Amino acid sequence: MSGDPGETNYLNASHGIGSWLLTRDHKRIGILYLLGISVFFVLGGLMAVLIRAELATPQGDLFSSDVYNRLFTMHGILMIFFFLIPSIPAVLGNFLLPIMIGAKDLAFPRINLLSWYLYMIGGVMTFVSLLTGGIDTGWTFYTPMSTNFAQGQVIVTAVGIFIAGFSSILTGLNFIVTIHRMRAPGLTWFRLPLFVWAHYATSIIQILGTPVVAIAILLVGAERLFHIGVFDPKYGGDPLLFQHLFWFYSHPAVYIMILPSMGVMSELVTAFSRKRVFGYHFIAFSSLFIAVIGFLVWGHHMYISGQSVVAGAIFSFLTMLVAIPSAVKVFNWTATLYKGSISLQTPMLYALGFIGVFLIGGLTGVMLGTLGIDIHVHDTYFIVAHFHYVMVGSAIMGYLGGLHFWWPKITGRMYNEFWSKISALVIFIGFNTTFFPQFILGYLGMPRRYHMYPAEFQTWNVLSSAGATILGFGYLLPVIYLLWSLKFGAKAPANPWGAKGLEWETSSPPPVLNFDTPPVVTEEAYAYETSTPAKEVTVGV
Amino acid sequence: MWLFIAQELMFFGGLFLTYTVYRWKYPAYFALGSNQLDIPLGLLNTIVLIGSSLTMVLAVRSAQLGRAKQIAGWLAATMTLGTAFLVIKGFEYHHKWVHHLIPGESFQLAGTTDPAAQTFFVIYFCMTGLHALHMIVGLGLLAFLVPKALRGEFSAENHNWVEGVGLYWHFVDIIWIFLFPLLYLLGRHHA
User: Fold this and answer.
1) Could you give the ipTM of this predicted complex?
2) d(CA A517, CA A264)
3) What is the pTM (predicted TM-score) of this model?
């Protein structure tokens, strides 16, 4: 059993800052990521608060339009490239993936550490570019804005993102090789936890998508420096080409954010309804299907860009296809909940919140995939609300749910049950109060990226800003009680939730090489019915 | 390593897409542009690079057979050929510089004043430049392997490094095998 004070684990095996900064232990690297990502999340979140403060009144009374442009650009860049994309894969994936498959570490521990350094260097460069002038292109770097007209540090920011992209690629490589080569004896492909399947699909996107945005950003940099004319019509270039290259990555990037979150969901739903997941194969393959289709839908960002109507119609059709695997997942989770013995612990609250938020985000996604509706609401707050629901709401619900679920495993301490439940509720209410009014605003015609607006939009904007305050408070709570738990939390047992999976068979926190004796897998994933009959309590009929 | 190469292919893929788009848009300028390139030098470079792939294969082969002494020799031969490629490429670049074929403000191409004519050279420099950068990385990797080979660190059982770098080197070679016909040969003399 775990919990006796004399035991060595990965946290107390060696001491000093050097042992952390030079570590090759995937668990410690996961914690390094957790620290870095939290810092960028706070920075990006502060910018969001400032944006909502500005938008509380119709006049531009807080910032000039120039400052506002830089603000929402950096908010987008920090949140997307330095929080949402790495959050679950780099923190939870890094920590859990090797343990879940019974491996001692990732396949390339040194490359893993390198990717953390690349991530931090990229993040710091991007943040420094903000302090030395920022950029006002929006996170999309659209040409010719970014190449010819943009103010500020476009090149530095682009290089920062380029470097962070390498970190993402290397993490993806590492995961794929690890999943292929290092599974424990008996752990066949269809016994893998769905969390691992989701990361497998995510890694494929990272490897195949990130290089394309890298070359696009490289070309923007070259064009801005030398005016060589790749995208500049003056020299025969085509600005649309940039949008194609950019969205070929950046649309799949949405799935880099949401797929791992869906993987976490599958773990949470089964663990807290004490049931084998419904339709294991369907969930696993739907992840791969999303990864593949995700690469074919970038053109739905460009309905009004001037691409041909035929292309628009084809992209519209392909976009609808993504709804199928997404719905498959949601239906399977719902079916898993059905007649399960559900316990509403904090991670489960986040999981249920995910389903609600993702439903709204997904259904509005189908609306946006429809050519005609998209043209009406293009570049309005409807879009802002939609992508916040999918990327932020769903991804963060999954991230926080997963963080709470595995917190005892990671730190060896239990967090405060009361405050964590309160925070889950506050975040859910705050999130919906912030972003649901934006659907209405967008439908009424308020464009995105403006810091002033007609007075008639103020009511909904005030509601949204009020929601942002609640949301900000909701995010603050976990920071406090999770840090508190590190010192004062009760010692966590090896398996506080009575959950299935290899990660719950090792002690909390795990030893340096994850397992004292190499595990052998003898049963399917989520075999709840067979081995935990005592805890089965059937609710309802 | 195979996965890494897959992502590299996507990386170059963006440029190949750019090439396709602009070639389709400006076929005449592409013909005009490719007429400016030096086929003999390009051909020479192709031969040099294929030769370097051969020496690289021989290095991997001697590693597989456990002939530790030969590995360093073949690696050094590969490095020599790789450097020769870059030197020849340098001459070509210099030639373009002298003839104002570098895209930008001072770009000049006989036979046209349309700035769109430079798109060919934009792509030429982006693609060959990125390729040259990969060659330099490859040379760095080889330079890292040679002392290891001299110390006898590779054997029939342990030659992952040699094999991986070999794969990378062949990949860079193959990219050039595509670049050479696309940039130098296709559509020539049709302007």
Assistant:
1) 0.77
2) 26
3) 0.88
